[in-house]
Amino acid sequence: MDNNETPAQRPVTLDITGAVEVKPSLSEAPISPLPSLLPSSDVHFQEESIDLGGESFITPEEDSHSTPSESLMDKLNDQMMESVMISDSPNNSEEDDVVPMDNLLEQFEEREEDPEEPENVKQKLTTDDQDVITVSVSAVTPEDSTPSSGSPKPEAAALEASSKETTSKDESIPVCTIFSQGSQPKAQALVPDGFQPTLIKSPSFSSSTGGSTEITPSQLAPLVCQPSPSLSKFFSDSGHVNPATDFFDSFTTSSFISISNPNAESPKSAAPPERHSFIGPTQTEPAPATAPPQPFTQLQAVFSGGDDPFATALNMSEADKRYDAWLPSEETRKVLISMATQHYSQVFVERERLAMPGLKFDNLQGDAVKDLMVRLMGEQAAMKRQVLTANSVEQSFLGLKQLISTKNWRAAVDLTGRLLTAHGQGYGKAGQPSSHNTDSLQLWFVRLALLTKLSLFQNAEMELEPFGNLDQPDLYYEYYPTVYPGRRGSMVPFSMRVLHAELPQYLGKPQESLDRLHSMRTVCQTILDNLEQGLAEDGSMINLTQENRQASLQLWKSRLSRVMYAMANCLLMMKDYVLAVETYHSIVQYEPQQKVQLLSGIGRIFLQIGDIKTAEKYFLDVEKASLEKGSGTIDTCVLMNRAFIYLSQNNYSEAHSSFAEVLKIDPKNPVANNNAAVCLLYLGRLKESLRQLEGLVQQDPALYLHESVLFNLTTMYELESSRSTQKKQALLESVACREGDSFNTQCLKLV
Amino acid sequence: MEVNQAKQEHLLALKVMRLTKPTLFTNMPVTCEDRDLPGDLFGRLMKEDPSTIKGAEALMLGEMLTLPQNFGNIFLGETFSSYISVHNDSTQEVKDILVKADLQTSSQRLNLSASNNTVTELKPESCIDDVIHHEVKEIGTHILVCAVSYTTQAGEKLYFRKFFKFQVLKPLDVKTKFYNAESDLSSVTDEVFLEAQIQNITTSPMFMEKVSLEPSMMYNVTELNTVETGDEGTSTFGKMSYLQPMDTRQYLYCLKPKSEFAEKAGVIKGVTVIGKLDIVWKTNLGEKGRLQTSQLQRMAPGYGDVRLSLEMIPDTVNLEEPFDITCKITNCSERTMDLVLEMCNTRSIHWCGVSGRQLGKVSPSASLSLPLKLLSSVQGLQSISGLRLTDTFLKRTYEYDDIAQVCVVCPYMSRES
């Protein structure tokens, strides 16, 4: 319409969005770093100083116009001037000339529809919508609301037109109009799909304007809305943080209990001679692969133990068989069969097909808590911090367990490194032939599990890499017929397979995790099918006693449910809620005693999406299920769910009382305590909330020195006063007394 | 960060934190079996962890609430909530404290403070708290301006301000398309179909709680987004009604003019206001947003001065057998017309009756019903064409071709077979 052209001739006195004009002196002002660069403080608003990035709001000349009454404010606040936009000039004289035809038309129609609405209101609102901003040249403060008359007022259209021509900043975009952007640079008439961009505005806004002020799409098409690059980038970047990656596990109690696990120790006594049966790797050239061809049926018979019943019966305990059962891939299977049939003669296995692990990094060492204390409080104070290290414990499984249970996982990782080095799989040994045994693989599992718990995913992935997909022939007992005569199955513990499958999702490769989990699920399912058909786990025709069969079924069902949990968790991380909910649902059949927890969890997923109605349905099912059970602990679960519903309805006071009710039943419930304190903050009761959390941490540090609680506490410290650092240091000291070297200091936000 | 520090130490400190909804803490389950080296250690550690779900430790999504970790994004239609805390950092009591929170947008300035009363005194280590809420109605830069004025014990009046800038982004992309149910028989109904494509252009999943069309006074609306199965309709979008980032969803509505408008078909012409879309969505833990589109407009199909629609026509007719149709002629112009009907035969369609007969005067918005007889000489799907209306006042002729189609079949057995 013509308003694109007419106003262009008018002088534009102040382009709000315009080019950067900063006072020379101010340009030296420190630029506050983007909040996203400060992980510790980005919860709070970044204070705005001078933004040199293109949105200065005033020019030097304008500054001189400031009225005397503002001198104080100017003195205090000249780090940032503000523009004042007066939007209360409905009958701007020039406005009427250039109201686009559409607007006139619309106003005409509007008048027909609700004639009682006074016209001047409409005019005013029209200007609002059109982003008609009259800008007084003087920097009027908000207190001084009278516009300084006489200052030239650029009219809306002028602003629009000029902004179109001179800048692409978003500020010039007319307020509250949304239209399809970017993809359709042409006017809507040319859009091939025939869709019209549609203006959207907030309902309360439009209710006042009565929808009378839309701008036709063709007018607006070029005014594409693009958020200012810096801020939007920051917001979206930081807004995208995956909660799961932010702070992971930590554990609270640290009372040391020595645990002796006869099962774990026993294989050590039968210390296997190393490299006894390892033959292949001595050949560096591609070797003639695998066994000489044999009729398959014969192989099958051999593999299923029919040929060698005595060794099998004698050496394979039922429990071992149950736990070690696994279905190797066809190729691996052939190698293993040939191992068995060759009876101690040489079998050549290609080097590439063997697992040759080695440590990929030497020492993890270090204690972040102590480092932080040295930095903030000096050596003296840091001396108080005493934790176990790999040196201070027995160099054995016993010492390892001691380190784990005291939550000194870094030291524990070091110790696993030493033990593996002793086994010949130390630093730099990756890719070199070595043999495996039950212990070495357990050590690897513990090491990788701890690395994962410490969120050192990259390290874990590096060290897992030589293991491939955990299906190399030398990872099966059959590969070592002399060391483990007659023993069959996987040397790799099932838990390590789960870990191996779950790891990629923490490194941004959830699809890979899902692939691995699916193949694990297939194996579990096949084994369960075999068992139900009266076969042994691996499908062989071995008779199991009823007792053993039941035990095996139970074990494999629980393993299957663990895999399903891992799949559901992974899907949840991928935000594939439909499949995640379905998968969690399917676990109920394997773990009926977890029905209440599972249904509550699904309900919470729906709350996370925002679907409160469906969440309520699930919570209702939880109530029914808990009634059936009729135990006392379930009541807290129902109350907790109710609190979450209130929370989602923005009813923080009711949510708070629901959490308080949980505490009446279970006063030590850490979740309810923490959540009640969070509700208090949203109710504007910061001091109370702080007092509650502080009290909890002091009274029962075992339960409340948890990173989620500490994160909440430090966030509130930051909100409360400028002296949060001292208070955080006090927290650090109490952490230092109790927690091991695995404590994640990031939640204290001290750095 | 403290820009004012160089100049003047203030006794009071102002802190602002955006209150988005809290998030649920997620665990990372690492488990082992009893036979593994750690024995029950891992299991015990997970049980003792307060953030795990007791009895189902492998469930990742916990119940522990954590405060927002960053500013996040704010979108048009959402509510901006913020905690404002003014804390007395000094060792002396401070008097007459006034805290003001304003929100400056590109078009207006709003006062968001719950109260504008002066607090008479603030002891050391105590604070004034305020939680502000504002439904965001504009896109682009917003600046939260917090001003604090107070009097020290010495009687000195002090004042400082802080600015917090944030961008309001657009959450949805909405495109609309109208379909006129015009071309054939349904033209008598004057139905309009609206297809609305709604795309989530945020970075988080959105639960679409409500997407409804509020029709203008002329129309009744039927939502075509559920499939009736039994007593309860199921959504066409499946069980879970959420929209992943960048996903688009099509909503369909059918609009029928109300009877008082439908009778006067001529009323609906030119640009008509159809209504507006009202969209309500929710995200994390019930964070709510609401938007309305502007009035959607449609260019009604032009009927010209005289509109010819069909009231009755058979779908299948026999070859070379006369059949009846009923036409409705409506005067859509502002003047009275005197009409003459001419019928021109086409290759397949032959009109029965006299061509060039007078239909008489038709006043504006009036209509008349016209029974006609015709036959087809060709089999197959035949288009009815060849009606001409001439307004004798203005000597203007209106041509009507391809009014409708009929299927012409042969009633006799073919001899060749």
UniProtKB/TrEMBL annotation, chain A:
Subcellular location: Endoplasmic reticulum-Golgi intermediate compartment; Nucleus
GO biological process: vesicle-mediated transport
Region (Disordered): 83-173, 262-292
Keyword match Repeat: yes
InterPro entries linked: TPR-like_helical_dom_sf, TPR_rpt
Classification via Gene3D superfamilies: Tetratricopeptide repeat domain
A Pfam family it matches: TPR_6
Renumbered ranges of TPR repeats: 561-594, 636-669
Record's compositionally biased regions (Acidic residues): 107-118
Biased composition (Basic and acidic residues): 162-172
Keywords (A to Z) from UniProt: ER-Golgi transport, Nucleus, Phosphoprotein, Repeat, TPR repeat, Transport
Polar residues bias (residue ranges): 133-151
Superkingdom per UniProt: Eukaryota
GO cellular component, one term: nucleus
Primary role: Component of the TRAPP complex, which is involved in endoplasmic reticulum to Golgi apparatus trafficking at a very early stage. Also plays a role in chromosome congression, kinetochore assembly and stability and controls the recruitment of CENPE to the kinetochores.
PANTHER family recorded: D-ALANYL-D-ALANINE CARBOXYPEPTIDASE, TRAFFICKING PROTEIN PARTICLE COMPLEX SUBUNIT 12
Record note on quaternary structure: Component of the multisubunit TRAPP (transport protein particle) complex, which includes at least TRAPPC2, TRAPPC2L, TRAPPC3, TRAPPC3L, TRAPPC4, TRAPPC5, TRAPPC8, TRAPPC9, TRAPPC10, TRAPPC11 and TRAPPC12. Interacts with CENPE.
Record protein name field: Trafficking protein particle complex subunit 12
The encoding gene: TRAPPC12
Automatic annotation (TrEMBL), chain B:
Any single GO CC term annotated in Swiss-Prot or TrEMBL for this entry: TRAPPIII protein complex
Subunit structure, as described in the record: Part of the multisubunit TRAPP (transport protein particle) complex.
Protein name: Trafficking protein particle complex subunit 13
Organism: Oncorhynchus mykiss (Rainbow trout)
Family per record: Belongs to the TRAPPC13 family.
Domain annotation Trafficking protein particle complex subunit 13 middle: ranges: 172-301
Span of domain Trafficking protein particle complex subunit 13 C-terminal: 314-408
Highest taxon, organism lineage: Eukaryota
Domain Trafficking protein particle complex subunit 13 N-terminal, chain residue ranges per copy: 10-168
Source lineage: Eukaryota, Metazoa, Chordata, Craniata, Vertebrata
PANTHER family recorded: TRAFFICKING PROTEIN PARTICLE COMPLEX SUBUNIT 13
Pfam family name, one: TRAPPC13_N
